[in-house]
Amino acid sequence: VASCAQCCSWLVGQALGGVMQVGEVRALQSTACMAAVEGACSFLEAAMTQMPTKMGQGQMPETAQILEQLMQQLLALQWREPRLLTVYVRLLEAFGRFVAYVCSEAAAPLLLRLFALLEAMPMEPRGPRRDMTENAVARQRVCSAILGLAKEAPRSLAPHLAQMGERIDLLRQAGQLRDMERGSLCEALVLIAGAAGTPQQTSSVLNWALTPVKVRWQDPLLAAQMAGPATFLASFGGGSEWEEPIVRVGEASGTATETPTQRRSSLISDVHLVERTLRRLPAPAAGPEQMEHAYDEHLAWVLPTLLAMLSAVQTLWTPAGRAVIPASLHEALEMTPVERAVLSTVGTAERVRPSSPHGAGAAGPSEGEVLRDWLKNMRDSGYQIMGLTLSHVPSVYRVSGLASGLRQSLLEGIPTMENRHLRAFIRVVVQAAVLHCPQEEMIQREWLGELLPGLLPHMYTRLSQSWVQLLSSSHSTSNSSCSTSSGLPLSPGASGRGGVEGAVSAEVLEERILRELTRDHLALMQMIAAGGAGSRITPKKGGAALAEPGGGLAVGGTVSRPGSGAGSRGEGLLGRAPLLPWLLTQDASLAQQVGMLGSAALSWPDSDGAHKAVHMCKAMVMAVANGLPGSEALVEVVGGAMLGEALRGLTLTSNHSHQGEMVALIRDIVLKVGGRTEAVRKVLLTLPQMSMPALQSFEAELAAQNSDKHQRALIKRMLLHAGGDALKALAVSNPTTVVVKGAATNIDQLRARAEKGKVEQEECLLPSLF
Fold it and tell me: Which GO terms describe its molecular function (predicted)?
């Protein structure tokens, strides 16, 4: 360890000496000099992350002395160039672990140096745009370094909390602090207070951080700007015809005029601050006794304004909104190049934020591109705030009228939502509500009774029609995109621009988004039917567990996939009981829609989605078999549609990996539901080689078997005999052709492979046994 510390000290010393020898300006022009500085910084960062905690117990005094001397050497530097300062700040931030475990007294000089750097750098330097950008990036990097120190050493920084707040206020009052910069610093203070302070101190810091936001969000002018798409565009659109200054309130210096560009930056900074502070607050302890949360007193003004913002953003995708958008801003409604690039691969979409606020020197983007990035960040952060609140703040479910407001603001607009937006809403907001809604009759009726009736019927219609469109397009031999004649917004049209966007066809993007939406919605249905067996969350300390694509989770949660561990045994998520019994007693028609959607998904050529559907359908079969109150409404769905779609699903090579589970599902339906409805017999009689005598013989033989294994084997033999050519795949234990999961399996690939004779027709078309 001492040798590693000596190596770090030597490398950093050599890099710093090289800069001092030639000067900052010439160092920036020297590739070798900058490479040495960057290399030394990266080496120090990697070494410090592996620093043993026992150094803080006085067991390695030599190593601690070397690192302390190196830190003092860095604190004495007086660099001025922004690009060098960006690396210099990283060097200082690397000592966060050292401050946490070895030398807490070093927190004060580190903070003083970082704040001094922030004060020394001008807000708007004179010179070329590039210099302005580099200066803005360096300033934001200083604020991020303070946040990094707060993450590593919150207890060491806790004694300096009041002084840090006073320093931030002085900078803000002097006009030397941007909104984004203040957001990073406030996040650091909230993190420190939450990790090392008392609940009262945490509440006090949060009130201090959000007071400017509260003043602005309670201004009637902001509500007027969100009233409709025309006023929303006039206030935040940024087109030349709307660049009219307005008065902004809530600043310490009084009032100031702002253009739409400045208003966008101010509003997104406020939204980010709300999200960041909420994310940094400690999650409440498990159990009903812990109901208080630092955000309780802010719910009344944060959530109504946030819902109004999200509703205003969504109105731009409505016919009324599209009608008022000028041609110069049409690209604001399209996907970003990053989103297109991610969706064209098997990766996971992540939120992309600009490294510095728009208008702070960012070069190049058109007005439409700037507005597109802003709208994406507004929607993503807004959904994250809702998801974090629903999962972290128990009192939110007792706010009167909030569920109704959520339905009116967001659910009523889902017919015009594009699939990518609807997927984010389901994954982050609806799943959080289903997972964390208290299991009290009145609260469930108020919240789930508002959300599910507006969502489930629409999703059944949308997904069914969208899959019909997608599969119909696979029949065509043309290379045209999938039709959207039904009016369902699958995704934005492909851009004619080159680069990444031009390389990705609209058809591939539509298919990928549809698959991800299907999986996320089926994960939600699985939570409802099986108590959350689709995704099991273990929230990390200080983070929220919010769903990610395909039933996974992000933002501080760990996941086990469907069929793994306790989730596959139906024990439920976080100890919660399934919602299906409640749904059956409240609205049997909704339960039927859940069953119909799960049944249809069994025969959609998507392996992940079908796997979720199998687990969901098993739960519904058990509900019928156990005679749950209201389950009579599911008997015909399970015995008819579900059995028929399960048989169709067996013909798809995409379902080969869970073929055994589908056979087990068919067995459960035949044995446990067949005696309650003639629909089971009717479906089995539609098999090509099935007759009434053969069916009666099969039923008698099945009834005589007591072993689950023998029953499944008997059903498999029956299907091989009666299913005709379509079910011959059941006889092959290791097929040579398997459909690749996810976006790698797209219609263009399937067509090409089918033309070469490398795949069976069932991979490209939805087969039918009937």
Answer: nuclear export signal receptor activity; RNA binding
